Amino acid sequence: MRNRRGTHRSSQWARRSDGRVLILKLGVFAMMLAFVAVNRFHLTPRLAIGCSKGAQSKSLGQFARNSAIETVLVVYHGDFDSLWTA
Which phi and psi angles does 8 have, rounded to 5°? Predict the structure, then answer.
C-alpha cells in the first residue's frame, strides 16, 4: 500500500527509530537463541557423557562463557527501550 509520497508503508517503519529498535531487538534475540542452542545441543551432551578430563573442562568453560554472554544479551535486550527513549 502506498502513502501520499508514493512510497510503501512497509519500507517506512524501518526508517523510524521504533523500526530500528525492533530490528536490533530481533537480532539480539536471534543471537540469544543461537547461544541457547549451542549450550543445549552441543555442550550439555558433551558434559553429560563425561569426556576426558581436558575436554570436559574445556566444555565447562565454554558453557560458562556462553551462559554469561546470554545473561548480558538478556539484560541489553530489555534495556533497548530505555536507550532509545532517553
Answer: -75, 140
Counting as low any pLDDT under 70, the low residues of the chain are: 1-11, 13-14, 51-52, 79-86
Whose cell is 543471537? That residue is 31
Number of residues that make up the chain: 86
Distance CA 53, CA 68 (A): 23
Any idea what the Cα angle at residue 57 is, between residues 52 and 40, rounded to 5°? 95
Q: Are 32 and 70 in contact (CB under 8 A)?
A: yes
Q: Which residues pair with 8 in a beta bridge?
A: 2
| Alpha-helix runs per DSSP H in the chain | 9-12, 17-38, 44-49, 53-85
Q: What is the pLDDT of residue 13?
A: 65
Q: How confident is the model at residue 30, as a pLDDT?
A: 92
Query: What is d(CA 78, CA 71) in angstroms, rounded to the nearest whole number?
Result: 11
